[in-house]
Amino acid sequence: MLKLCGFHLSNYHNKVRVALLEKGIAFDEDASCRPTQKEPWITRSPMGKVPILEVDGTTLTESQVICEYLEDAYPAKPLYPKDVLARAKVRELVTHIEWHMEMVARRLYLQSFFGGTVSDEVKQAVDKDLSRGVRTFKALARFDPFVAGKDLTLADCAAFVHLPLVSLSTKLVLGRDVLEDIPQVKDLIKMLRARPTFARVDEDRKTATAEMAAAAKKS
Predict the structure, then answer these.
(1) Where residue 112 sits, what CATH number does that domain have?
(2) Which of 34, 76, 122, 126 is the most exposed place for a label (fewest CB within 10 A)?
């Protein structure tokens, strides 16, 4: 039995979780794990991050590595096309969404989600970098109706968990949603949310968000 460890507020944990659910893979889950540089977690996750996947006594880290393993080990319900070039285009989209959009917008999360502040210099840098990232994403995405084409792929799993954070964080900190000029994004998220697996992950995320907010009020 596979075991996924992380927490339901982590978009990277949720990316792996929705992939597992869509592929119909049985797994156990420990949703109480948090990123830390302390033992014993760093023995399981050397970078101290989440998620991790435990497989027969071996631990895998990095969400994309985990998803690639799942695709190789459980090919019956693929999240990649058969064509080699089409598979590469899916990986291109995933890489772009994560590194040129979500990781850029992440520099705003301190202010948008955790009550801190970011400098005007950071805001300007994020705005500039995201403008390029969004322009490129618009050129790469197909929305036909899924983000990479006619079939659901791992790129949709990534888009579902990452793009709403990009939208919300930029709206809260920069005063505008950097994805507002790509209305297909909202249609994509709505379509994916209608799928039971995506809806389940999203509901668990909402529950975890509410629990975190309630705990913060008590403290």
Answers:
(1) 1.20.1050.10
(2) 76
